Amino acid sequence: MVEDVTNVLDDSGLQRILAVMAHPDDVDFGCAGSVAGWTDQGIEVVYLMVTDGDAGGFDDGVTRAEMAALRREEQRAAAKCVGVTDVRFLGYPDGRVEATLDLRRDIARVIRQVRPDRVLMPSPERNYERIYPSHPDHRAVGAAALDAVYPDARNPYAFPELLADEGLEAWTAREVWLSGGPVVNHYVDITEHFDRKVSALRAHASQTAHMGEELPNMLRGWLSGNAAAAGFGDGRLAEGFQVVDTA
């Protein structure tokens, strides 16, 4: 069930969706319930993680290289919980991401490879009411990914080496969904996919194992608040986004 509070592409007309996120587990906290619904409809979803999450975790006995490898495997396992098999990593340093031209080119490359109808990304804006989604890496990835959607990926003269050297034709993604920002204009009811969202997050054991039952309880608090804002009714759970028309 989707609340049509803004002009949103009909899922039935979509073939591919690309989620561009800063760290392993970002997509699962923000969007995994929606992703599960899309893959159930037969839409191909691809994940692109800008970092390997090497600055995460709580164990001083694990090297940063080991943590990066662990978190890549956790993200692949989490993706399978919601029907995603194509998970890509750019390997930028966790905690030091900037919205550079290099990052814009690397994201534009994947947009041209995947050719998605819709692109998910973190909001580039700081959310002062709920600060945790506004990690600097999130905002930097959101800014770079939005620029990669418009104008970079669609302009054959932006990063011309992508076409000349790699044969990647320009591609226009028709819609962007921003997660974690201060503005929400669209909600997706994920009540039936909540358990899969929890399973995806539990797959990130290095980040969530210590939370126990606090994890689903915390999620229910956030998601029920979203559902109430959307007017979905008692007992419903929802993820919220700012949808931007980029056609």
Features:
247 residues, 8 helices, 8 strands, globular, eight-stranded mixed β-sheet, alpha/beta
Indicate the low-confidence ranges by residue numbers: none
Average pLDDT number: 95
Give the helices and strands as they follow along the chain.
Answer: EEHEHEHEHHEEHHHE
Instruction: Report strand order across the widest sheet.
Output: 1-7-8-6-5-2-3-4
Report the biggest beta sheet as strand number plus sense, adding barrel if it closes: 8 strands, mixed
Instruction: Tell me the fraction of residues in β-strands, as a range.
Output: 15-25%
| DSSP helix fraction | 40-55%
- Broad shape: globular
Provide the fold topology.
Blueprint: E1 2-3, E2 16-21, H1 26-40, E3 44-51, H2 64-81, E4 86-92, H3 101-114, E5 118-122, H4 136-153, H5 161-164, E6 175-179, E7 186-189, H6 194-202, H7 205-208, H8 214-230, E8 238-245
Parallel strand pairs: 2-3, 2-5, 3-4, 5-6
Antiparallel strand pairs: 1-7, 6-8, 7-8
Helix pairs in contact: 1-6, 2-6, 3-4
Protein name: PIG-L family deacetylase
InterPro entries: GlcNAc_PI_deacetylase-related, LmbE-like_dom_sf
Keywords: Zinc
Summarize the structure in words:
This protein is α/β, with parallel strands linked by helices and 247 residues long. Helices cover 40% and strands 18% of the residues. It has an 8-stranded mixed sheet with strand order 1-7-8-6-5-2-3-4, with helices on both faces. Strand 2 (16-21), helix 1 (26-40) and strand 3 (44-51) form a beta-alpha-beta unit. The two termini are 24 Å apart. This is PIG-L family deacetylase. Pfam families: PIG-L. InterPro entries: GlcNAc_PI_deacetylase-related, LmbE-like_dom_sf.
